[in-house]
Amino acid sequence: MRALRLIFLGALGMVAGCGGCESCFGKPEAGDDAAFTTTATTPDAGAKEAAAESPREEDAGAEAAAPAATAATPLPQIARPKLPKSMAVGAFQSCGVYDGPLCEKTCEKGACRQECDGVNCELSCKGGYCSQLCGPVATCKLSCPGGHCVQVCSKPEGCTKDCAGGDCE
Question: Which three-class secondary structure string do you get for the chain?
């Protein structure tokens, strides 16, 4: 009971103008020997101190226009080859550092897509019309005997492409 009373009195001591008088709490008990002190402040005191400080102007537009020093290398966008009307969209594979040192995908029917970063990737597209996106920390190999395949690499020296038949990019 005493602990709750102490907490309540302490909380009221924070309210401006309340000193915890006997009219609110009654007479103190024999074992109550804690003394409470309160400090009253005017609400305008904090505002005057804040106004005394020089205002700091910020321009969010200027900050957004400045390039970030730690901007990540953006992955290039890849356009899928236009599929013939009779061909359905094939499988999709995305590989990263947690998928292992090598990601392999064999696409028998064609129209498959593979995106890799941080690993070695190999895509074999026998049906053609496949696309491969290779990030800046990956090495990629695209084998496309069916033709009409697209390979986009962030780091061209890490990519090889073998394309037979049709136009390949």
Answer: CHHHHHHHHHHHHCCCCCCCCHHHHCCCCCCCCCCCCCCCCCHHHHHHHHHHCCCCCCCHHHHHHCCCCCCCCCCCCCCCCCCCCCCCCCCEEEECHHHCCEEEEEECCCCCEEEECCCEEEEEECCCCCEEEECCCCEEEEEECCCCCEEEECCHHHEEEEECCCCCC
Tell me the average confidence (pLDDT) per consecutive run of 10 residues in the chain, 169 residues long: 67 58 59 56 58 61 56 58 74 90 92 92 92 91 91 89 82
Tokens of 147: 């033709």
